[in-house]
Amino acid sequence: MKYISVPLDLEYRYSFIRRDGRITLSREAADPSAVFWRGKYYIFPSMSKGCYVSEDLSHWEFLSLKGLPFYDYAPDVCVHGEYLYLCASKRDAVCNFYRSKTFPEGEFEEIEGSFPFWDPNLFFDDDGKVYLFWGCSNLTPVYGVELDENTMRPKGEPAVLLEGRHRVIGYERLGEDHFFDPETSATLKMLKDKLSPMLKKPASELTKEDVMKTLPPEQQEVLKKILLDSPYMEGAWMTKYKGKYYLQYAAPGTEFNIYGDGVYVADSPLGPYTLAENAPYSYHPGGFITGAGHGSTFRGEGALWHTSTARISRTHFFERRLGLWKAGFDEDDELYCDQRFGDWVHAVEDAPFKAPRWMLLSYQKPCTVSSAPEDAKNITDENIRTLWQSEEQQGTVTLDLTKGYKVHAVQLNFGDNFGSVSLPSRGEEEMKAHGRYIDDEKFPLRWYLEYSEDGAQWQMWEDHRSAEDDRAHPLLVNEEGISLRYLRLTVTEMPYGQNACVSGIRVFGVSDCPAPEPASNVRLSLEEDGEGFFAEWRGSAMGYNVLWGHTPEKLYHCYQVLGSSKVNVRALVKGRPCYVRIDAFGEGGVTEGETLCLVP
């Protein structure tokens, strides 16, 4: 069988980015657009100078491409007839279209565009008509327009399709867990820095009111939307099913754990649209890596899939990865996405919502490291944003599972934590032109992993000391299972000569311990505004999946909770009923809870 985990194990490209007078270096891939083209899967993400190709959704290779606008964000790709079409975003310049009959061997034909757009999605309907959907702003909506198939020019005026409704739709609210403090917003910080010399006052002492007073009245109204809580509406994607049009969109911001995809439904491509009963569609606020917004839904060989953006945002605001999730339509033609154990290990062939084959065995297990022991706990805390970094270029981590297990899979996660970086001379021209340089050079990530039952006799699981790639999230699978207690990871070389850096070692397998007791004394209450709920319970399980949905049978949404017995889910649609179930999980399996109803 073939297996996947999130983040996907890809060669993510590094970008040097100039911001606020200094240069940062990080890996970025986001806004993925995926297609099944002539027997292979292709994912085109932002800022990668190419795409990823796979025959089985499990193993992906990077394909470098030339002659395409890869410094434009959110490349969109679709298949129509004999052609593979592509376009990408320019906010203030005309965007062109590209198509190829011979991809990936041949060149793309360029079709001159006629207007600028951001976060595009090109959609060819089965009646021969073609549409473009786009939008990326907290001030403007998501638009749609019919295009001429030959010239790709609009056949009419753009239609307003979707606008933010964060006073009704909870998952559109800004902020970590949908809690937003305007005083800490990036926009306000930028304005304070610019205004500080003019007002002759340190930026740290300027208030929001100080900034507002410096702007003319018409700009103040715009700034209020930016600084307060208006969500970004972006990343449109169209799926047609049984004559219905499912317009997906991302909200409220890529830097938050709650970045997700909602969905509206209509009888025609240009609406009017109605919010789907089970929105949000893709939503992954808890777990090892969070966020599941701005993606694409595509059909492969017999199954529907959704790929989307996963958030790190640590080294840089746009430090992101790619996720891949199982999707589908239920018996009522409602679109769903399975993220219940979304970033665990899954077999590609398994049906959505099937219980995990292997359970997580590494959570909070002790690690011994070659240096910097104070950060060793970050390796098994199930949080990709925390790191352990060696004090030397090479480093070793020894993970003790505390007893013997049958281990079937290990996901290694390497981080980046650069200090001061300099732009290489090879990137100066592209930095001047684009404000960033996507590095074409390869810098291998080399390591080896050993295992042991007693901590004395060691055997090799995987040896990457001669690797030529820089895959940051390798997934190692042994279907028969390996009996072990200890794992020892030795990092011998990191890209750009940085010290060994690990954001997580995750171990999956089977245990002889029983499944946990169910959550007890469950208490639920709606938020006063009706856009969220509070949940508290008692229990001693490793973790809990808080599931909810608009019917008892459709608990499609999940917030995974580790190390706590309460959560505030702020992603409801005001006025709609909500059914909640809390499932306990541990090394021995999953124990379902009782489904309860919250009535607005």
Keywords:
600 residues, Tachylectin-2, Chain A, 42% strand, mainly beta, 4 domains, globular
- Fraction in beta strands: 35-45%
User: Can you tell me the CATH superfamily of the largest domain?
Assistant: Glycosyl hydrolase domain, family 43
Task: Look up the CATH topology of the largest domain.
Answer: Tachylectin-2, Chain A
User: What's the number of extended β-strand segments?
Assistant: 42
Category by helix and strand content: mainly beta
The largest pleated sheet is described as: 8 strands, antiparallel
- Which consecutive residue ranges, at least 5 long each, have pLDDT under 50? none
Q: Could you tell me the mean pLDDT? A: 94
Q: Given the C-alpha coordinates, what overall shape results?
A: globular
Distance between the termini: 45 Å
Instruction: Quickly count the domains.
Output: 4
Question: What is the second-level CATH architecture of the largest domain?
Answer: 5 Propeller
Number of helices: 4
| Rg (CA only) | 24 Å
Helix percentage: under 10%
CATH class of the largest domain: Mainly Beta
Explain this structure to me?
The protein is mainly beta. It folds into four domains: 31-174 and 230-347, Tachylectin-2, Chain A, CATH 2.115.10.20; 182-227, no CATH class; 359-510, Galactose-binding domain-like (Jelly Rolls), CATH 2.60.120; 520-598, Immunoglobulin-like (Sandwich), CATH 2.60.40. The chain is 6% helix and 42% strand. The protein has four helices and 42 strands. Strands 26, 27, 28, 29, 31, 32, 33 and 34 form an eight-stranded antiparallel sheet that branches. Strands 14-17-18-19-20 form a five-stranded antiparallel sheet, with no helix packed on it. Strand 2 and strand 3 (22-27) form a beta hairpin. The chain is globular, with a radius of gyration of 24 Å. The two termini are 45 Å apart. The model has no long low-confidence stretch (mean pLDDT 94).
